[in-house]
Design goal:
About 70% of the residues lie in helices and about 5% in strands. The protein has 14 helices and six strands. The chain is globular.
Length: about 450
């Protein structure tokens, strides 16, 4: 059956990657709900209020599935990763508990009011509930990111005599610079996902000639927010995230770029295949000096290669890390191009009549999910072989009591459950899209 550690890592990677398909959309939609609410209140246009109600329903479906798919991860901390939980629970347990007690209950409580309580609480309180939903959703993301940031760049802790990590400086831990940058980068990625999803639905309605005014307003908001978020993902948030990796995890940066030799005027590789056997990058297309400038602010800066580090400190899957990084960056660049072109056509008043571009907007919505998944793979693969960077190796964090056969069995169960949940959520979302934001399609 193989190494139990491999199956523990594969199972957790699968469950967390699948789970995050839903929160990234809900966090992105939470912002759009607030935006449509604000536009409806400021303009008095009922179309914006209709769109807010519509996206609240989509949010509710995704939120429910996200909760169900997140529960297995909580159990895996205690089963597959018992030693990690024992050693680090005194630190990351604080923010995980805060996420559940504060953010999750804030989000779920006000979601109920938004879906079923508009007639009872009135429009003003309903708008405030939307803001509370937004706050709970984004606060939840921050607490999770702080927990992850401690694993990437541990601060604010002390080592107890029994070898466990204990929280020593709460605010240092909560305001970890890595957490702040990672959070901003992550949330802009979630907004990109929400933007492409919102725009795809509006493009579909436009192509079908349904809900014409609703589709027009939604396209305007979705494209504008989408371009802004796509730019912010790249700069400054992505740029600052890269500089943190260069400063604190230079071996990860070398692996992300397939760089084996150190030197100044380091090239940024656009295309290439890492060849570990010969320690080189095959068939590269690169730009000299650009990696040095991006990482350290100077073209002449020295960027270390993998050979400057002991091989036991190299990421454990350099090829997958390299390709994940370049998929993330490539798709991020594509998003800027798509939304930039869409905004140009929107500004010229031609977007609704340009069917090829509408088809692109409608079909492009899966790509932000891929880009965000690839981004998290870069984060987690780049940290290897450490669970807590520089302090606790991954091999020392798993449970010895759960063998490979048990992990494979439960992984197959999770996969079956998640397939069912995907089809169910897709059916419910497509049904809402077909019903539209109003009872009867405009013009029908």
């Amino acid at each position: 059956m193989g190494d139990p550690l491999f199956w523990h890592r594969l199972q957790f990677g699968f469950t967390v990657a699948y789970h995050y398909l839903y929160p990234q959309l809900t966090m992105g939609l939470a912002l759009f709900i607030v935006v449509f609410k604000l536009l409806g209140r400021s303009s008095g246009n009922e179309v914006y209020r209709d769109m807010a109600r519509f996206w609240i329903r989509i949010f509710g479906i995704n939120f429910a599935v996200g909760v169900v798919t997140g529960i297995p991860m909580e159990f895996q901390f205690g089963t597959n990763w018992a030693r990690f939980s024992h050693l680090s629970g005194g630190v990351i347990g604080q923010t995980l508990a805060m996420e559940g007690l504060f953010a999750f209950f804030l989000e779920s409580t006000f979601l109920g009011l938004l879906i079923w309580g508009e007639q009872k609480i009135g429009p003003k309180l309903h708008d405030l509930a939307a803001w509370a939903l937004f706050a709970g959703s984004w606060l939840s993301g921050y607490f999770i990111i702080v927990s992850n940031a401690f694993m990437q760049h541990p601060v604010g802790y002390t080592m107890a005599p029994d070898g466990t990590f204990q929280l020593a400086r709460f605010w240092t831990y909560l305001l970890n610079p890595w957490a702040i940058v990672e959070y901003l980068h992550n949330m802009m990625g979630a907004v990109v996902t929400g933007s492409f999803f919102v725009t795809a639905v509006a493009a579909y309605w436009t192509l079908k000639g349904l809900y014409v005014e609703h589709a027009r307003k939604t396209l305007q908001v979705g494209v504008a927010v989408g371009l802004l978020a796509s730019l912010l993902v790249a700069f400054p948030t992505g740029d600052q995230q890269g500089k943190l990796v260069a400063k604190h995890q230079p071996v990860s940066l070398a692996a992300m770029e397939g760089r084996f030799q150190s030197g100044t005027y380091a090239e940024l590789n656009f295309i290439g295949q890492p060849n570990l056997a010969e320690q080189k990058l095959d068939n590269p297309i690169r730009m000299p000096g650009l990696l040095s400038f991006i990482a350290y602010g100077s073209f002449s800066s020295n960027v270390k290669g993998l050979n400057d580090f002991p091989q036991e400190h190299w990421p454990t899957n350099i090829e997958l890390l390299y390709y994940s990084f370049h998929i993330m960056v490539g798709l991020g660049t594509l998003f800027i191009g798509i939304m930039g072109l869409a905004l140009l056509f929107l500004w010229k008043g031609r977007l609704e009549r340009t069917r090829p571009l509408l088809w692109v907007l409608m079909l492009a919505f899966p790509f932000p999910f891929i880009a965000n998944t690839a981004g998290w793979m870069v984060t987690e693969l780049g940290r290897q072989p450490w669970l807590i960077y520089g302090l606790l190796r991954t091999s020392a964090g798993s449970s010895h009591l759960v063998h490979a056969g048990q992990t494979v069995f439960t992984s197959l169960g999770f996969a079956g459950l998640y397939i069912v949940l995907w089809f169910l959520s897709a059916f419910l979302i497509l049904r809402e899209i077909s019903h539209g934001p109003t009872a009867t399609p405009a013009g029908h």
